[in-house]
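Researcher: I'm preparing a figure for a lab meeting and need a structural model of a single chain. I don't have an experimental structure, so a prediction will have to do for now. The sequence is pasted below. Please return the structure as tokens so I can convert it later.
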Amino acid sequence: MDAHSEAGTRRYPRRNGHQGTGPGPITPDGCAVELYRRLSVGSEPDVIAAAVPADATLLELGSGAGRVTAPLAERGFAVTAVDESAEMLAAVAERAPEVETVHSSIEALRLPRRFDAVVLGSFLVHTADHGTRQALLETCRRHVKDDGLVLIQREGADYHDDVPRERRDPAGYTVRIVSSDPIGDGVDRVFAEYLFPDARWTQTFLSRPLTREAFEGHLAEAGLVVDRYPTDDGTWALARPAAAGG
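Model: Understood. Here is the structure written out token by token.
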């Protein structure tokens, strides 16, 4: 799909294979800031809150516009939100002014402290590039306490097979996964569409399906080990530093 220009759209250098269209700023991985402001919160805060001690410090990597950040802060967690988009972090600050925000790519993050829990959501672990994946996971390990935990969101088993599909959100918008096409080397190009009564956004991104064995192997390379999968569908993994996880 070719990106198209729209009034008021700010462009960033695009990551290879990633692009987005629609009103407002578009981040390098094709995410539209205004879209992420509008998306409803799902079950993510419930999953995280069930796994993390109530008084935990929590590092959220790739927070976006704060869809998950704000509910976690409302539950009393001391959240630090990291994103490479200043516009996304501005949305976080509007939603949850008590949250500390850090403007950085995940791979380059070097904070002088560690956290009780680190969250890597939004299927970021499925990046097409192996080096980037390892850098993401190493950031998780670098910033989690030795007795802490890392929560990682994974794609569902049929994410690339049950296509096309769509979901009508109670808030009144529709999310469509239009296609997932193999482009070689085990990578798929995914095209998603978001339809609101007054606007339309699209996002194209590259994703690498990971078997559970491959996923756990990548974690091991970064010094992490899976403790358990806290959701029945296996879309969340709870990992710990290898020394602590045995």
